[in-house]
């Protein structure tokens, strides 16, 4: 993402606190950050670039766009940032792995499920509750669950077949009455799963039946005059009742809720979703819809809400919106808050969707401007070259060789005035011996368009040859041989005076040096030159080792690579002492190498 890209949307950015995400072309989040003022923080990435750290510059360069979520305070931004980093693990974030990272309670997806704490969420069908900031408090609740429900702690594979075969024996946990021995079939799966259901009720906030059970236990211990056990249950119950000290981006009084807001324009509708679990925002999402006729915002939300809840596996009993929405499901109800924390949540979601709509509008205008710019340049180029068609598809050729060695050529492709790098091609010259640029150009042009014709691919409207009249004439031999003279416009560009030559015309065309059309031709020419030079260097480097060292009988690639790594070049190997070469590759190989270079020297003399 460039500073110019940022300038086009900077005016729409909010000055509220929030969390932002940089996203690469593969739609992967590569960085998550927090900000007291989103607009000021984001602008810092695109101003004073020279003073930034190399890692920051690389991250911004690799990003295609950014997204953001508005929150109420800096503390909220901090907690939400941490949640998103744990969830997406962006490449450019420092991953927090200390004891302060969030913990979850996991109910494992298995027969006779285990219940334990974890810092890692694995999508294997298991049920997770959290995140929790206080690991101690979570462990207190887990101890309470184990005391009351007698859940197994072993990791045995308790399949029905394994239990029937008697593969397992009860452990100490059974003897001290912390487990009922499902490993030996002493507890039914139905009874065990009922305990799991009660544990889920605890973490979903369905406390009534569980509290009654606790009170009955305390009453029983009191009647038995076992006041010590009664006091233990009371302390555990108090910890359970007060366990809501989890990460609260929103509120300690709000449990599980879904928050939806909507913004629309003439054609599109945008819906923002906040997933709140036990008072913490754990997911934010904005979706886009194409509007149908006679649909108002309430109808659109009624259509979207069930799909989004299913997508995010939401079990919340309340759906908060700014206005009443008719919901068909009886599993959850619509609430339109007027005051309090729930109203603040709806306002927060509404802010996010409105800013999202503003940014989409700005992006559309920017895209239209870019499209207009490309069309303007291509229209100018069409006029300058007197072409019948708009040159939407342009190809440019260049040769590269040094004194005839390793001759190669390159073809670069521009589409809609932009490089299309996936379509670039390079060529090894096959039929030309020696430094003959004209013949080389004739060969690659023929090979390129012969293949496009054979594969029934689209031909370019304009072909640019890097060179003067000689290279252009050679190219036209291939164009004529393929019968493409009337189907493709071919021009040559001479480097010194930037002269544009046409086939059969000795008088060049001079385009204004400041013209956008000439700059496009120069861009294509420079890109072809760069691509050809890079390929030539790679090939020359590859052949450097194979022709000089691997031509020696008994010297393979590994030995050659070892010598080059140590000495740095073939020239230094030639001048090295026998003992130095022997120390690297041994006596036999060293003798072969020195004998080879000695023979080469005698031939030259």
SSE order and pairing:
Blueprint: H1 3-9, E1 18-23, E2 29-35, H2 38-43, H3 54-62, E3 65-70, H4 74-88, E4 103-107, E5 115-118, E6 127-132, H5 135-149, H6 160-164, H7 172-175, H8 189-204, H9 208-223, H10 227-241, E7 257-264, E8 268-277, E9 280-290, H11 297-311, E10 318-320, E11 333-335, H12 340-384, E12 393-402, E13 405-415, E14 418-419, E15 425-428, H13 437-454, E16 462-466, H14 469-481, E17 489-494, E18 499-501, H15 516-548, H16 557-567, H17 570-574, H18 578-585, H19 587-604
Parallel strand pairs: 7-10, 10-11, 12-16, 16-17
Antiparallel strand pairs: 1-2, 1-3, 4-5, 4-6, 7-8, 8-9, 12-13, 13-14, 13-15, 17-18
Helix pairs in contact: 5-10, 9-10, 12-15, 13-14, 18-19
Key structural traits:
605 residues; GIY-YIG endonuclease; Nucleotidyltransferase, domain 5; 5-stranded mixed beta sheet; 18 strands; 18% strand; extended
Quick recap:
The chain is α+β, with helices and mostly antiparallel strands and 605 residues long. It contains 19 helices and 18 strands.
The CATH architecture of the largest domain? 2-Layer Sandwich
Q: Which fold name corresponds to the CATH topology of the largest domain?
A: Nucleotidyltransferase, domain 5
Count of DSSP H/I helices:
19
User: Could you say which structural class the secondary elements and strand pairing correspond to?
Assistant: alpha+beta
Shape: extended
Largest sheet: 7 strands, mixed
Mean pLDDT: 82
CATH class of the largest domain: Alpha Beta
* Number of DSSP-assigned strands: 18
Unreliable stretches, pLDDT < 50, 5 or more residues? 95-100, 243-249
What is the radius of gyration? Answer: 36 Å
Quick one: CATH superfamily of the largest domain? UvrC, RNAse H endonuclease domain
Q: Helix amount, in percent? A: 40-55%
Residue fraction in strands:
15-25%
Number of domains: 5
The termini sit apart by 60 Å
């Amino acid at each position: 993402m460039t500073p110019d890209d940022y300038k086009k949307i900077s005016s729409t950015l909010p000055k509220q606190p929030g969390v932002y995400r940089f996203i690469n072309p593969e739609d992967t989040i590569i960085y998550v950050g927090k900000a007291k003022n989103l607009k000021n923080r984001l602008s810092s990435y695109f101003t004073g670039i020279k003073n930034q750290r190399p890692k920051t510059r690389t991250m911004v360069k690799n990003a295609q766009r950014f997204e953001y979520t508005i929150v109420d305070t800096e503390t909220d931004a901090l907690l939400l940032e941490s949640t998103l980093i744990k969830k997406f693990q962006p490449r450019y974030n420092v991953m927090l792995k200390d004891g302060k990272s969030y913990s979850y309670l996991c109910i494992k997806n298995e027969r006779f499920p285990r219940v334990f704490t974890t810092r890692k969420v694995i999508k294997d069908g298991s049920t997770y509750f959290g995140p929790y900031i206080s690991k101690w408090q979570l462990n207190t609740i887990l101890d309470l669950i184990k005391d009351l429900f007698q859940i197994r702690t072993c990791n045995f594979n308790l399949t029905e077949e394994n239990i029937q075969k008697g593969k397992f024996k009860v452990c100490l946990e059974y003897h001290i009455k912390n487990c009922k021995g499902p490993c030996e079939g002493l507890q039914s799966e139905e009874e065990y799963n009922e305990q799991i259901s009660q544990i889920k009720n605890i973490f979903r906030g369905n406390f009534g039946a569980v509290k009654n059970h606790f009170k009955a236990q305390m009453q029983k211990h009191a009647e038995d005059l076992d006041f010590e056990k009664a006091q233990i249950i009371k302390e555990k119950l108090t910890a359970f009742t007060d366990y809501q000290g989890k990460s609260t981006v929103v509120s300690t009084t709000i449990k599980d809720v879904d928050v939806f807001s909507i913004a629309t324009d003439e054609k599109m509708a945008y819906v923002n979703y906040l997933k709140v679990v036990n008072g913490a925002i754990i997911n934010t999402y904005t979706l886009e819809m194409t509007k149908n006729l006679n649909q108002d915002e309430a109808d659109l939300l009624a259509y979207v809400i069930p799909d989004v809840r299913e997508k995010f596996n939401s079990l919340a009993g309340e759906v908060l919106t700014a206005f009443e929405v008719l919901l068909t499901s009886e599993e959850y109800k619509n609430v339109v808050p007027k005051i309090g924390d729930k109203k603040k949540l709806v306002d927060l979601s509404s802010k996010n969707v409105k800013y999202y709509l503003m940014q989409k509008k700005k992006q559309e205008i920017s895209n239209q401007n870019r499209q207009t710019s490309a069309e303007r340049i291509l229209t100018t180029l069409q006029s300058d070259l007197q072409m019948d068609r708009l040159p939407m598809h342009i190809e440019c050729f260049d040769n590269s060789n040094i004194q005839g060695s390793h001759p190669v050529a390159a073809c670069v492709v521009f589409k809609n005035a932009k490089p299309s790098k996936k379509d670039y091609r390079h060529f090894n010259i096959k039929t030309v011996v020696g430094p003959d640029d004209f013949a080389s150009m004739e060969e690659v042009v023929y090979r390129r368009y012969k293949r496009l014709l054979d594969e029934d691919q689209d031909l370019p409207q304009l072909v640019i040859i890097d060179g003067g009249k000689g290279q252009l004439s050679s190219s036209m031999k291939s164009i004529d041989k393929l019968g493409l003279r009337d189907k493709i416009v071919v021009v040559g560009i001479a480097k010194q005076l930037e002269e544009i030559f046409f086939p059969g015309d000795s008088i060049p065309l001079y385009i204004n040096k400041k013209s956008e059309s000439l700059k496009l031709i120069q861009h294509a020419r420079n890109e072809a030159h760069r691509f050809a030079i890079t390929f030539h260097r790679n090939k020359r480097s590859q052949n450097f080792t194979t022709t000089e060292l691997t031509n020696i009988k008994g010297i393979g690639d590994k030995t050659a690579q070892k010598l080059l790594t140590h000495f740095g070049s073939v020239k230094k190997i030639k001048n090295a002492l026998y003992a130095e070469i022997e120390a690297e590759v041994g006596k036999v190989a060293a003798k072969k190498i020195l004998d080879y270079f000695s023979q080469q020297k005698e031939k030259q003399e």
